[in-house]
């Protein structure tokens, strides 16, 4: 009768002592349990039935329990073992639940400290936090933090839109306010850069990127329907001459290059990028005030679209009466399909699909 002494909520269902049904007490709560040993008395063939909650507690140990069933020398010993396994697991669960409550409380304290007005979003499990900062020019900047299990001990992962790499400095005692402060300082250092980029976005036709983010350092600006210039601005030094790459037919971009080289010393760090470029290149950039974007969004002569996934037309026929533009991908596919074309190393030699004039296209690694 040892079993009924240690497990008072079980009742014996047969006279041989092989079938028990009722409840088992774990940490003060009762869980449904039924154990049936076959007439042979072999424990390894016993069936154990538990309620859903008890099953959930024992689930990670199902292999161990099976093994113990075959090794225990008595049903009593076996019941004592599963009781001990389940109670240990309940203790572990309780610690995990406390950890999770502690984490939420800590994060809420940190949000309180930061101010709810600076918070744009927080996920239900508090693992993802978006903080928002509006700069002096009323541009909105968002810092996304992803907190790990060991927050605040471990540095959260962080995602921001800045033109340079941002490293979050973190210590075990850091809070959201520290992260926000670092972001604020970083955003402030790029005001001059963003002002310059904003002027370009407002006063020219930017062909690329389609929707520039705060991190984008380059702009492809239309000069005329068949020529554009891609500039890359140094965010730490936005007043110096940006890196310039012209796109268009050889004869169209040659005078621009020459003009730039001849006037390069005239770059004035006190005036804007557009003023400077206009003077160096001797061009007036077409602007939304004087033209429509469609005039500069020339479609590819092969697929008749402007944007092909991320690509925009970058190959131009050099014949002055043609100047048709093509996507690099489209032109490569077209020329490769023709027996009249030939390839040497990474260059394909063929003819313009429009005017038949000889054309070459370089294969770029993608
Ligand atoms: Zn195309
Ligand atoms: Zn052509």
TrEMBL record:
GO cellular component: Fanconi anaemia nuclear complex
InterPro entries registered for this protein in UniProt: Fancl, FANCL_C, FANCL_d2, FANCL_d3, FANCL_d3_sf, FancL_WD-rpt_cont_dom, UBQ-conjugating_enzyme/RWD, Znf_RING
Transmembrane parts of this sequence: none
Alphabetic keyword roster: Metal-binding, Zinc, Zinc-finger
Domain RING-type span(s) in chain numbering: 300-356
A single BP term in Gene Ontology: protein monoubiquitination
GO molecular function: ubiquitin protein ligase activity; zinc ion binding
Origin superkingdom: Eukaryota
Keyword Membrane: no
Pfam family, one: FANCL_d2
Alphabetical list of PANTHER family matching this protein: E3 UBIQUITIN-PROTEIN LIGASE FANCL, UBIQUITIN LIGASE PROTEIN PHF9 FANCONI ANEMIA GROUP L PROTEIN
Protein name (database record): RING-type domain-containing protein
């Amino acid at each position: 009768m040892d079993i009924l002494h240690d497990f008072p909520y079980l009742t014996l269902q047969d006279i041989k002592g092989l079938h028990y049904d009722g409840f088992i007490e774990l940490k003060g709560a009762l869980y449904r349990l039924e154990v049936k040993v076959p007439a042979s008395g072999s424990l390894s063939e016993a069936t154990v039935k538990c309620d859903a909650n008890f099953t959930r507690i024992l689930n990670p140990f199902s292999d161990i329990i099976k093994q113990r069933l075959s090794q225990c020398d008595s049903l009593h010993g076996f019941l004592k073992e599963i009781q001990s396994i389940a109670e240990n697991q309940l203790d572990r669960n309780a610690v995990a639940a406390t950890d999770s409550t502690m984490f939420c409380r800590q994060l809420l304290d940190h949000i309180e400290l930061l101010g709810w007005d600076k918070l744009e979003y927080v996920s239900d499990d508090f693992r993802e936090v978006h903080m928002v900062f509006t700069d002096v020019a009323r541009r909105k900047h968002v810092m996304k933090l992803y907190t790990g299990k060991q927050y605040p001990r471990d540095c959260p992962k962080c995602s921001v839109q800045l033109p340079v790499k941002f490293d979050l400095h973190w210590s075990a005692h850091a809070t959201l306010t520290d992260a926000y402060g670092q972001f604020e300082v970083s955003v402030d250092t790029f005001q001059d850069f963003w002002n310059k980029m904003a002027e370009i976005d407002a006063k020219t036709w930017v062909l690329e990127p389609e929707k520039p983010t705060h991190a984008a350092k380059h702009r492809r600006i239309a000069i005329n329907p068949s020529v554009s210039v891609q500039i890359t601005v140094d965010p730490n030094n936005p007043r110096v001459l940006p890196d310039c790459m012209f796109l268009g037919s050889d004869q169209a971009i040659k005078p621009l290059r020459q003009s730039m080289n001849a006037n390069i010393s005239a770059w004035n760090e006190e005036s804007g990028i557009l003023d400077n470029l206009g003077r160096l290149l001797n061009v007036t950039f077409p602007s939304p005030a004087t033209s429509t974007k469609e005039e500069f969004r020339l479609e590819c002569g092969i697929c008749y679209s402007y944007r092909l996934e991320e690509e925009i037309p970058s190959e131009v026929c050099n014949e002055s009466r043609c100047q048709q533009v093509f996507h690099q991908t489209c032109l490569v596919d077209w020329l490769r399909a023709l027996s009249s074309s030939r390839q040497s190393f990474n260059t394909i030699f063929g003819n313009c699909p429009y005017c038949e004039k000889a054309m070459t296209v370089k294969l770029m690694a993608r």
